[in-house]
Amino acid sequence: EIEKIWSSPNQINCESLSRNLSSTLESFRSNLENATDQNCTCQPPLETVQQHMST
Hints:
Number of domains: 1
Order of helices and strands: HHH
Number of strands: 0
Shape: flat
Oligomer: single chain
Structural class: mainly alpha
Number of helices: 3
Mean pLDDT: 73
C-alpha cells in the first residue's frame, strides 16, 4: 500500500498524498490494535537483539 503511494506519479499532489498517508496510518493503527487484542508480540530484528547483548 505504501509503495503504491510513493511510486504512483499521478498522486504527487499534497492533498492526495495526505489522504493516502492518513488512510494507511489508520489501517496500520487498526491492525496494530487487532494484534494487541490477540496478544500478538512483535519480535525485534536479530540485529537489535545482538546490539542489546553486546552492550
